[in-house]
Amino acid sequence: MSEAPGSLTSLRSRNRLLVVETVQRRGRISRVGIARATGLSRTTVSSLVADLLAEGVLTEADGTGRRASPGGGRPATPLTLNPEGGGVLGVHLRHAGIRVLFADLSGGVLGERYHEIDVDHRPDDALAYVADAALDLVAAGGHDAGRVFGMGVAVSAPIRSRSHTLRTSSVLADWTGVDIAARLEARVGMPVHVGNDANLGALAEWTFGAGQGADDLIYVMLSDGVGAGLILGGELYEGATGSAGELGHIPVVDGGYVCRCGNRGCLETVVGLRALTSTFAHTRGPDTTIADVVALLAADDPGAQRVTADAGRMVGRALVGICAMLEPRRVVIGGEVAAVGRPLLEGVRDMLARQLPPPIGQEVTVTAGRLGDRAEALGAIALATQSTSAHLLTR
Ligand SMILES: [Zn+2]
Q1: Protein fold of 210-370
Q2: How far is the CA of 260 from the centre of ligand 1 (A)?
Q3: N or C: which end of the chain has fewer CB within 10 A?
């Protein structure tokens, strides 16, 4: 049956797509939430959701993410994409290693690989590993490759999601001009979508983690690299060229250490994973890890408390101007360094409370990420999932 533009049938098709895309973007959302996010009436949403549940496109989840028993759903029960509808792959290309996740459409992780490698200087080896690990994960779980809809890739460099090639990048010089999506698509035979890792970390915490329900949030990634991702007005904001949120390269120390970007005294040279652990070199040796710092904090070590609180205040200092401009509802601190926990968060809160004007300073909450060092790969999964609408509605 053909659908005349403007007909009731085509209007219903468009609204179905809108509902599916909203569930994809939010990961888990109630009927009321869908109505609020789309502007559709609750009656229309209930009718569309009933059809999508019957067709197996959506399913009802309980608060822990497990599916509710059939027929047992309450009106506020969150909806997710039906996990049995297919899968997607998510990849995080970090500076020092590669994470590959295989997940169902509700974001449930089915398999994972991690491989330490010098990603910055070995793009060919890194892409070969990604393709092999991805195909291996799909095969290992006995999944039908034809029902894997796509792959998302998070990279530690400025790039807009859905673009393909890295622009000239002082941060990841050996990857400049590499068409990551095309090279991976040729190997894995599915659509590949690429985005900046901190941006995708923000997307993940907003979709699955500590940022759920906050449509204006800043995600801070404290890892071997330091970056930030922005969700503004319920949309990922990437800037004109994908470089928004380069928090790690804001100068915070005059005449400080030279950063890998070429400037001096960037935030990353002070609170990045290596910078933070190296402050313990004199007392604890050069091989101190973030797990060692966490153990020192648990033993009430005053040096560890001081270092992590100072790091938090330094992050807060870099965030003050950004919060004053954007008025986020929530700041989510993620990445491996966030494992140090409370003193870091309190350092950030202290600086924001002290330096922001009262209405903004009082309303912004600072919280730890819930997804740990998987956040960026899960964001890549969210990105890939967002591109599957047409597949889901035309099966
Ligand atoms: Zn820098």
Answers
A1: Nucleotidyltransferase; domain 5 (3.30.420)
A2: 6
A3: N
